[in-house]
Here is the input.
Amino acid sequence: MLDCKKNLFSLQPGAHYLNCAYMSPLLKSVEEAGIEGLLRKRNPFNVLPQDYFDDANEIRRLFSRLVNADEDRIALVPSVSYGMGIISRNIKAGQGKKIITVHEEFPSDVYALLKISQENNMELLTVRPPVETYERGKKWNEKILEVIDGNTALVNLSSVHWADGTVFDLEAIGKRAKEVGALFIVDGTQSVGAMPFDVKKFQVDAVICAAYKWLLGPYTSGLMYLGEYFDNGDPIEESWLNRIGSDNFRALSDYANVAGHKPKAARYNMGEYSNFINLPILKAALSQVLEWSPPAIGEYCSSITRPLLPVLQEKGFWVEDVSFRSPHLFGCLPPSGISPDKVQKALKEKNVHVSFRGDVIRISPHVYNDEMDINRLLEALVAH
Here is the structure.
């Protein structure tokens, strides 16, 4: 199992940062890559035509390994909302009459689904979790499977619920979606990089990941897998970089001989994706994540929080059952009568950083956390 990697980061001494689901800190090595990229702009004559493509191609290769995909099916996007814009733009008429998502899904997903449903006269069906907490995750997954039928056009959800860490059974949901001919779109932002992900096993048509959380990368950077359904689709932008022959800078204005979009996912790359500062950061971050491996990262996170959970449950906190709780991100509800505001104040006093999503306390450690961080978290949570 991995040991603690706190020394590889520059976290402020005395801060107990258990909030990677909000934003990851940068590794020291990743900072150095970014500084090198920034300084490169001092002398732009050193930026050569191939530099517009080389880092991006390497990043596609790295991300393809994380999701078990072919690298030519990976696009560089700035955000989940951009990726969902691609989905929205390419839903074919007659695909079906029902879109399925889950309760309190991330807003960037939901706003796109509302647009799709309105423009295509579809019903947007939100599957709520059961009220009872016993086997909540199991029953929630069962409810999702029950509503997927022959009238379903699209199923869209996060691999791990962004607010409370509930794990959705992507293999079962993907299988059911394919049985009825529905598209299966996954927001992988809160799991890819900390849990195994397999686009073939899960039978997804697209997966979108913002990079600034579990991929340890910069903001305004993301990656997207697109399956065969999108091979000849309509991109959001008509970027010159996404055209066949774009590496020949002397012939860029020879429009009559432009052969069209590059194949597969390359047509969907964001404009100016060759960001000479962000891409070195992202490349260094993805390389480190792959070296550690998502299963090992998840195992480490699970191991350091394992002693915490029975104590919280004994004190009356609700935590999802282990079978449907992600190893790196989980939510807990304070006991009845305990104000979340009081808990938030106690955490601040201990310099413990987590997120609150509604009444749920969202805890999301990474390999830079250690036993001291967990002890301070526990002290704050049980103070009342």
Remarks:
- The longest strand covers residues 152-158.
- The first helix runs from residue 28 to 40.
- Residues 49 and 250 are 10 Å apart (CA to CA).
- The mean pLDDT is 94.
